[in-house]
TrEMBL record:
Protein's UniProt name: RING-type E3 ubiquitin transferase
GO MF, one example: ubiquitin protein ligase activity
Organism listed in the record: Oryza nivara (Indian wild rice)
Keyword Zinc-finger listed: yes
Annotated signal sequence range: none
Pfam families per UniProt: Sina_RING, Sina_ZnF
UniProt lineage: Eukaryota, Viridiplantae, Streptophyta, Embryophyta, Tracheophyta
UniProt superkingdom: Eukaryota
Similarity annotation: Belongs to the SINA (Seven in absentia) family.
Amino acid sequence: MQNEKTDAADCGAPKRPRTTAGGLYAYANQQHDGEDETTETGGYSIERDALECGICFMPFQAEIYMCNNGHAACGSCCAGMHRACPSCRQPIGDIRCRPLEKAVAAISSPCKFRVSGCMKILGYTERRSHEASCPHAPCRCPFDGCYYQGSMLYHHIQEEHATDGVDVAIRRCTAVTLHRSKPFHVLLNRGGTRVFVLPNGGDVPMGRSLSLVTVGPPPLPPPPPQRGTPYAIKVGAVDGLDQLSISGTIPRVRCVQGFEAKSFLFVPDAYWGSSGTIDVAVTIG
Ligand SMILES: [Zn+2]
Ligand SMILES: [Zn+2]
Ligand SMILES: [Zn+2]
Ligand SMILES: [Zn+2]
C-alpha cells in the first residue's frame, strides 16, 4: 500500500530566495494565465540544485518521491536504485513528495529561443525535451570567420556566401566538383530551405574522407516515418581505379564545427589527380 506522507522537514518547506552568483533559475514577472485568474509574481530565483533529482542530478520528472529523511528523487530513478535512497539508504519510492511536485508543476517560463521566434511557454518538466528539438534553435554558419547563428541559415548563406553554395535538387543526382584543399562544400536544397554540408576530411592518411550532414533543427512533429533523409555519394572510376560509393541517412546537427561522421567514403590520393579535384555524384532523398 502506498504511503503518501508529505510532511518531511526539508520537502516543500518554504525557502527564502537566494541570490548566489551561479546555478539559479530566475523567474521574473511571469504571467500565469488560468481560466479564471491571472497571477503575476514579483520575480524570484531558485537555486538550480533545489529542483534537481538527487540520483540523476537532472531536472525532476513529473512524479517525485522521497525517503523518510526527505531526500527527493524522480520515480524512475528510485526504481533504478532498487528503491534505496543513495544518500541515507532508507527506502525511497513509496512516499510522493507532493509539495515539491506542486511547486515544479507551477513553474513555467518562455523557451530560451524566444529571441529567435519561439513563443512557447514551457512547464518545468517539458523544458529540456522541447529546447533540445525547438525548431527556432539557432544554427551556426559553417564558414570560417563567419559568426552567424540563427534560424535562417539557408537565406544567410545565399546572401553572404552565394558563390560558395552548390544547388542540389532533392531525389536527383547532382554532379559536384570537390577541391581537395577545401575542407567542406555547402549544398543548398534548390526550392527549399535545407542546408547540407559535404565535409572533405583530411583526418585519414593517404586520402580524404567524404561524408554528408545537414545543418538545421529537427523536423517538426509528427516525425517523418523514416529515420532520416537518405543519401548516396559516388566517385567515378578514373585511370583504372574502381568507382567508389557510400549511402546511408544524413545526420542532422545545428553546428557542423566539431562534427565527426560515423561513416565516410575514403577517397585515396590517386583519385584526386594533378588538378586536386574530383567529380562526385550526390543524390539526396
Ligand atoms: Zn532522477
Ligand atoms: Zn534519504
Ligand atoms: Zn522553443
Ligand atoms: Zn556565414
